Amino acid sequence: EPEVTQTPSHQVTQMGQEVILRCVPISNHLYFYWYRQILGQKVEFLVSFYNNEISEKSEIFDDQFSVERPDGSNFTLKIRSTKLEDSAMYFCASSLRQGAYNEQFFGPGTRLTVL
Amino acid sequence: AQTVTQSQPEMSVQEAETVTLSCTYDTSESDYYLFWYKQPPSRQMILVIRQEAYKQQNATENRFSVNFQKAAKSFSLKISDSQLGDAAMYFCAYRSGGIQFYFGTGTSLTVIP
């Protein structure tokens, strides 16, 4: 069964460094998402992406964040200058269709630790 | 604003027994969808069950069923005949017309052999 994959599983970085988190969505899916979960807190929506554009973003997704689908298979989240508070688990998700009822398929997550 | 609350951070159940995980939510919308996702250790979240708010009948998927109380804004998950493979973190989530999910903080379920 097709799955969303994410690399790396764990990324450690120094404060102020740029990081790129990578995701490979399910191949025929059209909608892509990033979520994050700070330890002990709720999973929070960051951004959704469709047709090479951001379709929705939360207030968390500020200018330090960007997303890209560079080659038709990968979907990346870049954090330009990491802060301590960016330490979290980051989940990528994809879906075939949009709409509140449609299932999003999640990846296993990347744990980002900012030192 | 939409909020989802899971008041049980941890639960445990004996194998073959039944357990109910609680979820409440707050919304002013009348049309929305509710979900339970399961996340096994070091694995991805997978959809367990979903419910449309306009449907009065509670959703059922094999051993998993929900008790949806729209007036009370409650959406609990019942797992019958619990199995070792049911051990996971369970997240309750809400969506209305928008794209994003609103998740609860999760309930960690332990299944005792």
Walkthrough of the structure:
The complex is a heterodimer of chains A (115) and B (113). Chain A is mainly β and 115 residues long. Chain A has one domain: Immunoglobulins (Immunoglobulin-like), CATH 2.60.40.10. Chain A is built from no helices and eleven strands. The mean pLDDT of chain A is 93. With 113 residues, chain B is mainly β. In chain B, the strands form three sheets. In chain B, strands 2, 5, 6, 10, 11 and 12 form a six-stranded mixed β-sheet that branches.
**Strand content range of chain B:** over 45%
C-alpha termini separation of chain A: 37 Å
State the name of the first-level CATH class of chain A: Mainly Beta
The major beta sheet of chain B can be summarized as: 6 strands, mixed
Q: Looking at this structure, what is the CATH superfamily of chain A?
A: Immunoglobulins
- The class by helix and strand makeup of chain B works out as mainly beta
Please give the radius of gyration of chain A in angstroms. Answer: 13 Å
> Greatest interface and its residue counts?
A-B, 26 and 26 residues
pLDDT < 50 stretches of chain B: none
What is the domain tally of chain A?
1
Helix content of chain B: under 10%
Shape of chain B: globular
> Which sheet architecture does the biggest sheet of chain A show?
7 strands, mixed
List the helices and strands and how they pair.
The complex is a heterodimer of chains A (115) and B (113).
Chain A: E1 5-7, E2 10-13, E3 19-24, E4 31-37, E5 43-50, E6 53-57, E7 65-68, E8 75-79, E9 88-95, E10 105-106, E11 110-114
Chain B: E1 3-5, E2 10-14, E3 19-21, E4 24-26, E5 33-39, E6 46-52, E7 60-61, E8 64-69, E9 74-79, E10 88-95, E11 102-103, E12 107-112
